[in-house]
C-alpha cells in the first residue's frame, strides 16, 4: 500500500536525508518547516509551512495532509532545560493533536539522541556523571529534567489515544550536510580546517583529553535516514527505542590527523589544555568573508555553516561516549558506514558545492 510520510524538520540535516531516502523508496513525502525556501527545497517533497509552537498554525497547515507515518526530526533550543521541555514537547503535541481526528497515522518516529543517557548539556560537561559504556537502550531514564523524555511522553500518550505504533531513534553526533543547522560538527570542522589552511595556522585539537584518548562513535546522516525508513515498516522496530550509529569505533587521536591530512594542514593533538573552537574561530567571520570573495564560495554567513558552540560541547566532554547497536542488528538492520568516509564524503560534497574552498 502507498505510504505517506510527514517529515517534521524537513530543512534540517536529519529531516532532509530522511526525505530523500523515503522518496527513493517510493513514498509520498510532505515536508514541514517554519519557512520553506528554495535553498532547502527537495525535488519531490510537498512543502508545508507552520509554526510548530502555534497549534492553530499547525492545524491549518495540516488540514489537507493525512500521513500514514510521521517523522519528528527537529528541536529548538532555549536557555534552560525547563524551557526546552515546554517548547519541544509542545511541538510534538501540536502535530499529533492536529492529525488525531483523521485517524490516519499508523506509525510515529521520534529522533532524540544520546542525551537520553547523558542528561542535558550541563549534566555531563563537568565530568561528574559517568554513564556505563557502551550505552544500551535498556538503560533507564536519569532522574533529571530532559526534553527528550518529555517528547517521548507526548508520543506515548498520543499512541495510546490514537492506536499507532512508534519508534524512538537515538543517534550520536550526526555527520552530514546541512545549511543553517544548529548542531553541525562535520561542516564546523571543515570550515575550521579551511580557515587553518588559508591562514597558515595549525589544526589544533579543541577538546578534552577524555575525548582525545577515549573511544567514540558518530552517526552518518545517511545511515540514520536508512534506519528511519527501515523502522517505519519493520515489525521488530515497533514500539522500540534504538541507538543508531555507524557501527565502527574510533579515537579522535587517530581521526584528527587524518582529517588534517585531507585538508593539507598540520595537526596538533591534546597538549594539556582545552582550546575551544569558539575562541579559536573568534576572527573567523572576517577571514571567511575574504575567502568567500577569493574562492567564490556560495555561503557568506559563517553561522549557517559552522556551530562551534555545539562542537565544543561534543569534543569537550571529559568522558568517552560509545553506543551499542546490538538491538538494531538483531532486529534486522545491518547497514554499516566507515566513520572516516562519513567525514571525507561530507568534505568532498562541501567542496564540490563550493561551500568550502
TrEMBL record:
Which residues does the UniProt record annotate as the domain PRISE-like Rossmann-fold?
A: 68-357
Gene3D superfamilies, from UniProt? NAD(P)-binding Rossmann-like Domain
**InterPro entries from the entry?**
NAD(P)-bd_dom_sf, PRISE-like_Rossmann-fold
| PANTHER family attached to this UniProt entry | 3-OXO-DELTA(4,5)-STEROID 5-BETA-REDUCTASE
Record's protein name: NAD-dependent dehydratase
Q: Which organism is it from?
A: Kumtagia ephedrae
Amino acid at each position: 500500500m502507498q505510504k505517506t510520510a510527514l517529515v517534521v524538520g524537513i530543512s534540517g540535516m536529519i529531516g532532509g536525508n530522511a526525505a530523500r531516502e523515503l522518496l527513493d523508496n517510493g513514498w509520498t513525502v510532505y515536508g514541514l518547516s517554519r519557512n520553506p525556501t528554495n535553498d532547502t527545497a527537495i525535488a519531490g517533497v510537498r512543502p508545508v509551512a507552520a509554526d510548530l509552537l502555534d497549534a492553530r498554525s499547525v492545524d491549518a497547515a495540516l488540514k489537507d495532509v493525512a500521513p500514514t507515518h510521521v517523522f519528528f526530526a527537529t528541536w529548538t533550543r532555549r536557555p534552560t532545560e525547563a524551557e526546552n521541555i515546554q517548547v519541544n514537547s509542545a511541538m510534538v503535541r501540536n502535530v499529533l493533536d492536529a492529525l488525531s481526528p483523521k485517524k490516519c497515522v499508523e506509525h510515529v518516529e521520534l529522533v532524540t539522541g544520546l542525551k537520553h543517557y547523558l542528561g542535558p548539556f550541563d549534566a555531563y560537561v563537568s565530568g561528574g556523571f559517568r554513564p556505563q559504556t557502551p550505552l544500551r537502550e535498556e538503560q533507564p531514564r536519569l532522574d533529571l529534567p530532559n526534553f527528550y523524555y518529555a517528547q517521548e511522553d507526548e508520543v506515548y500518550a498520543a499512541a495510546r489515544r490514537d492506536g499507532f505504533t512508534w519508534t524512538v531513534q537515538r543517534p550520536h553526533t550526526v555527520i552530514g550536510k546541512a545549511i543553517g543547522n544548529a548542531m553541525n560538527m562535520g561542516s564546523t570542522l571543515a570550515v575550521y580546517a579551511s580557515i587553518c589552511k588559508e591562514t597558515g595556522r595549525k589544526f589544533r585539537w579543541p577538546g578534552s583529553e577524555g575525548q582525545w584518548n577515549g573511544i567514540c562513535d558518530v552517526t552518518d546522516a545517511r545511515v540514520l535516514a536508512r534506519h528511519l525508513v527501515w523502522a517505519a515498516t519493520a515489525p521488530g522496530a515497533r514500539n522500540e527505542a534504538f541507538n543508531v550509529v555507524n557501527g565502527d569505533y574510533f579515537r579522535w587521536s587517530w581521526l584528527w590527523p587524518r582529517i588534517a591530512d585531507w585538508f593539507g594542514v598540520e595537526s596538533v593533538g591534546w597538549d594539556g589544555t582545552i582550546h575551544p573552537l569558539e575562541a579559536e574561530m573568534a576572527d573567523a567571520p572576517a577571514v571567511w568573508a575574504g575567502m568567500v570573495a577569493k574562492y567564490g564560495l556560495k555561503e557568506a554567513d559563517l553561522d549557517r555553516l559552522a556551530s562551534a558552540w555545539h562542537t565544543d560541547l561534543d569534543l569537550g566532554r571529559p568522558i568517552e561516549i560509545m553506543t551499542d547497536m546490538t538491538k538494531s542488528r538483531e532486529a534486522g538492520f545491518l547497514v554499516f558506514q566507515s566513520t572516516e568516509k562519513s567525514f571525507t564524503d561530507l568534505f568532498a560534497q562541501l567542496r564540490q558545492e563550493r561551500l568550502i574552498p
